[in-house]
Design brief:
The chain is of the alpha+beta class and about 240 residues long. The chain has a domain of about 170 residues: NADH Oxidase. Helices cover about 35% and strands about 20% of the residues. It is built from 8 helices and 10 strands. A 4-stranded antiparallel β-sheet has the order 5-6-10-9. A two-stranded antiparallel sheet has the order 1-4. A two-stranded antiparallel ribbon has the order 2-3. The radius of gyration is 21 Å and the shape is globular. It binds flavin mononucleotide. Flavin mononucleotide (FMN) binds next to loops.
Length: about 240
């Protein structure tokens, strides 16, 4: 877990606590300023911490409390979203019967994927990761979090309203979910047993929601093994314009 015990200077509220802008209430933002030294230390610590994150496919059956999962979901829900529509539903499943149903349906799709639906080059790219059509982690992990994106909403009259930048918003929220899981000392796997429509049916979700990702969450099995892969270097993934 990341521990940041740095001295933070909360900017003293020089202005009013609240004010109206275009007739809408705005509240004073409390900025956090770090010294240059603290900034470098905290950004490096956070990178070192995130650099230890791995997708794990072997889960312990050790329990994880509902409260911890709630905190993780609440962390993800702090994500920004297009026009603040928060177009997501996080379904958290610990019920064994539902987990078994999800595993069974996911393996039906994955059997199709591995025996013809995926191209030769895709299968070659997956080979070093050691993935197969078998998904035991969907039953072994104490929790499954299924993230649904809400493509539209209904208003009080039942009329449909499209949400904006739904994929971008939900993708960011999932990134924050993964970060919160890692920060809690737990592990997950970003899983996409495509197509995922079976999740809508198994979980009885409404027509405005589409399954986005299926994430088993729990402790890593001891021992657990992960593929020996490298991350790209900074100069391969960035371009600075100074
Ligand atoms: C959108 C997305 C879909 C993925 N789908 C699967 C999947 O269906 N099964 C699986 O085993 N891993 C899946 N992964 C995990 C990747 O294989 C993994 O992130 C990658 O190999 C890098 O490993 P790392 O997460 O340990 O850094 C997926 C990852 C992403 C981002």
């Amino acid at each position: 877990m990341l521990q940041l015990n740095l001295h933070r200077n909360i900017m003293s509220a020089a202005g009013e606590k609240n004010k109206l802008i275009n007739g809408y209430k705005h509240s004073l933002y409390e900025s956090t300023f770090l010294s240059e030294e603290e900034l470098l230390k905290t950004s490096k610590q956070f990178f070192d911490h995130l650099n230890k994150r791995r997708s794990v496919r072997e889960f312990s059956d050790r329990e994880v409390s509902k409260e911890a999962i709630e905190n993780i979901i609440k962390s993800a829900s702090t994500a920004p979203s297009g026009a603040h529509k928060q177009p997501w539903t996080f379904c958290a499943i610990s019920n064994s019967e539902l987990k078994s149903k999800i595993r069974e349906a996911a393996e039906v799709e994955e059997l199709e994927n591995y025996s013809g639906r995926m191209s030769e080059s895709w299968l070659r790219d997956l080979a070093p990761l050691g993935t197969t059509m078998e998904k035991p982690f969907l039953e072994a992990a104490p929790w499954l979090i299924v993230i649904f994106k809400k493509v539209y909403e209904f208003d009080e009259t039942g009329a449909k309203h499209n949400n904006y930048y739904v994929n971008e918003s939900v993708g960011i929220a999932c990134g924050m979910l993964i970060t919160a899981i890692h920060n809690a000392g737990l592990v997950t796997l970003t899983h996409t047993p495509s197509p995922m429509n079976f999740l809508t049916k198994v979980l009885g979700r409404p027509s405005n929601e589409r399954p986005y990702l299926l994430m088993p969450v729990g402790y890593a099995k001891n021992p657990a093994y992960v593929p020996d892969i490298e991350r790209k270097e900074l100069d391969e993934i960035s371009q600075f314009y100074e």
